[in-house]
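Table S2 (text version). Query chain:
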Amino acid sequence: MYTIVCDIVKERMQKDFNEALKILGLFVSSIKFEDRIGLYVVVELSMNKDDDNSE
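Corresponding C-alpha cell output:
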C-alpha cells in the first residue's frame, strides 16, 4: 500500500512541477523520498534542450 501511495504522489508531483517549470525550460528528471530525519523530497531538474528560448 505504501508503494502505491508513493507512486501516485510522485506522479502527481512530477506533473505539477513540470507544468510550473515549463516556462523556464526545465523538467523533473527524478523525484526521491528520503526519511532520515523526517521526510525529505529530493527533486532533480534537467534542462529541456529541445526548447531554445535564447532568441
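Notes on Table S2: The CA atoms of residues 23 and 46 lie 13 Å apart. Helices lie at 2-21.
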